[in-house]
């Protein structure tokens, strides 16, 4: 295992822009045997072959890592999640450009190695289609469907998008139909805009999927929304999937299908930490990040980095509370 901070230990803190590019300067390995005893493994899924609008999320994992900085205490939560938990960067899945099927197989295999080692996978996307191999790797190894909390502008429950079945807009439909996500323990948060339509929402209603629109977040507040979501998914295994376009574009200018009128980063960051401190989290992904700058100057990558940090903080809070 490689320690990116090794050269800096006798000098002090490593600057963000120097050294090996791993998430938050965490140790790096591609060897599944070195995942023994690891709590959380970061996996990159750099692919955007299945987008329906702007491409560029293939650069998301690298951009998020570049925006990350060495860990420290969370000033609100009063805990350093990366001190409480053993976190490593497991590198990128071996994706293959222009071959979405083999790319998804590679992502599923890589995430599966993390799950087999007993660690919790956090996957950096990539377009939202990566959620299918992410969740499938977990659900198949756990022997049953998982609950899902899904932050997004869109439901991603189209049977087809532009006549294509495998798309970043169809993955949630596929996961439910494949039996990997329990629709009655599936909550969508932040929906708005002009897609999808009656067909998709009728399909969701028939299966018991819960949709909370942006006007719900606005009217009742994020705390009430999170309370309801946590109650719906219950005490079983839960996957968290965060499409950054759930945020208003002022916070994420670098994303493929931006939609005005979204959540604030304050609300989303708190919600991710709160959810992960209370549910039985078995994995998460953050997707649809298109880097627009360099390092920590890129606000889209920076907010994605902070989403991951809040998730890690939430998991650490749950661990220390003994719940």
UniProtKB/TrEMBL annotation:
Signal peptide: none
Descriptive protein name: Arginase family protein
Domain of life assignment: Bacteria
Family recorded in the similarity comment: Belongs to the arginase family. Agmatinase subfamily.
Cofactor binding note of this UniProt entry: Binds 2 manganese ions per subunit.
Binding, Mn(2+): 128, 152, 154, 156, 243, 245
Organism: Solirubrobacter ginsenosidimutans
Cofactor: Mn(2+)
PROSITE patterns in alphabetical order: ARGINASE_1, ARGINASE_2
A Gene Ontology molecular function term of the record: metal ion binding
Any one GO biological process: putrescine biosynthetic process from arginine, via agmatine
Alphabetized UniProt keyword annotations: Hydrolase, Manganese, Metal-binding
InterPro entries for the chain: Ureohydrolase, Ureohydrolase_dom_sf, Ureohydrolase_Mn_BS
């Amino acid at each position: 295992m490689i320690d990116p901070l090794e050269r800096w230990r006798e000098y002090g803190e490593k600057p963000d822009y120097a050294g090996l590019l791993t998430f938050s300067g965490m140790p790096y390995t591609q060897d599944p045997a070195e995942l023994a005893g690891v709590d959380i493994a970061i996996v990159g899924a750099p692919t955007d072959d299945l987008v329906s609008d702007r491409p560029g999320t293939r650069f998301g994992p690298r951009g998020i890592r570049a925006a990350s900085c060495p860990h420290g205490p969370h000033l609100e939560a009063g805990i350093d999640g990366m001190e409480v938990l053993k976190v490593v960067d497991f590198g990128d899945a071996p994706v293959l450009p222009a071959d979405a099927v083999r790319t998804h197989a590679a992502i599923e295999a890589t995430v599966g190695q993390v799950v087999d080692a007993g660690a919790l996978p956090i996957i950096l996307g990539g377009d939202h289609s990566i959620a299918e191999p992410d969740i499938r790797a977990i659900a198949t190894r756990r022997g049953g469907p998982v609950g899902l909390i899904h932050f997004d502008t869109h439901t991603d429950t189209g049977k087809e998008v532009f006549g294509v079945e495998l798309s970043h807009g169809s993955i949630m439909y596929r996961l439910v139909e494949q039996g990997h996500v329990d629709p009655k323990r599936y909550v969508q948060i932040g929906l708005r805009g002009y897609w999808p339509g009656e067909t998709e929402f009728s399909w969701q209603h028939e299966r018991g999927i819960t949709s909370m629109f942006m006007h719900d977040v606005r009217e009742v507040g994020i705390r009430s929304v999170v309370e309801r979501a946590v109650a719906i998914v219950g005490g079983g295994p839960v996957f968290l999937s965060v499409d950054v376009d759930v945020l208003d574009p002022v916070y994420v200018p670098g994303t493929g299908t931006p939609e005005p009128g979204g959540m604030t980063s304050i609300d989303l960051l708190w919600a991710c930490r709160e959810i992960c401190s209370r549910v039985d989290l078995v994995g998460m992904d953050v997707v649809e990040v298109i880097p627009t700058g360099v390092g920590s100057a890129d606000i889209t990558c920076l907010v994605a980095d902070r989403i991951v940090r809040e998730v890690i903080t939430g998991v650490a809070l749950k661990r220390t509370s003994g719940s």
